[in-house]
Amino acid sequence: MTDDDLDAAARAILTGNDRGGYTIPTAGLYPFQWNWDSAFAAWGFSTFDPDRAWTELETLFSGQWGTGMVPHIIFHRDDEGYFPGPDVWRTGTTPPSSGISQPPVAAILARMIHARAGGTERLRALYPRLLAWHRWWRDWRCVEGVACVTHPWESGRDNCPDWDPGMANVDGSQVGPYQRRDTGHVDASMRPGKEDYDRYLAMVQFGRACGWDQATILKDGPFLMADPAITFILIRANRDLAAIAGELGEDPAEPLAWAAELEDGLPGIWNDDLQAYCARDMQTGTFARSISSGAALGLLAGIENRAMEEKLGAIWDRVRYGIPSNDPASDSFDPRRYWRGPTWPVVNALIAVGLNSAGRTAEEHRLREETAALIRQGGFFEYFDPIDGTACGGDRFTWTAAIWLAWAS
Ligand code: 2M8
Asked: Does 158 participate in catalysis according to the annotation?
């Protein structure tokens, strides 16, 4: 296939996964609207259908809660193919949704969509919603100055070793029987294990039992970990939101202050032993034991740190394709098991956005070429083995198609 053929195939994936105003990540495995997947879908649409790009974001924010939270899944229509569905989350919202959020990339991508394709009035209408969501992150997820997650699914990097310390303290033994659906769609050896799922469900059951009361979840919930990736994403997203505010004639003071607070909190996730920013269990103080691509997202936020960069450079050099989700030198590295080692084009794209802003064109070029090679060889899969390039997970994947169009091609 030529790159022109791939462009056409990527557009066909986006339009094929369009369910009318929102895009599913991939048919079968993920049949609903996922939060950060949709923001990337919008970026992809902006390369050929700007109106549809803004609609994607508008539909995402139609699921925003009164608290400002934008849920990680919006269940616009029933589908038996995914577990856990709305009957398990029981959030009582309209439209039905999950009770946690996901990485707040929407402002970063909305700014780039606007720069590429215009749409000032659509952006103006979204602005207060973006601001409310960022405020929710500040009020309900920033602890000791850094952004935390209350469930690994909230991080978007589900079974990453980052979450092992917190997961160890979650009791999954009482969740009762349930039927997973994911392992019927893709290779089970590449998915999180049963013990992971038992714990994921225990966290959902806790949230449901307290009516998704955030104060209770933060104080007494089974899991609370600082997430370097979301901390860095939120620093960048708040700065981008401030830039959007400037363009719209709004006051940028709040998002600028939130970005500065997060930057001030960074020493709290610096792991001296690993010489890197790391996930940290806020209940026990324990750091994760290996360096993940969450740390590499410091580049998205423009955080410069020489020790950290040396580590990241070595990690990158240990693989052939892109930034791996976990350090190959770590005993927890598994090159095909989801977020425990594979490279994710979508994370590479975010890192590249930061490299580009910093004028680091040689590294951005390398990252783009390595990511593009994976797609040219393997197609638009969900993620890839970073060592031999094997395509893994779901096929015809929306966010991989989107970043091909918007960045990698
Ligand atoms: C994966 O997460 C879902 C749960 O949200 C799952 O495994 O069932 C993650 O890769 C997440 O980052 C992504 O948004 C989602 C849909 O692509 O799949």
From this structure: yes
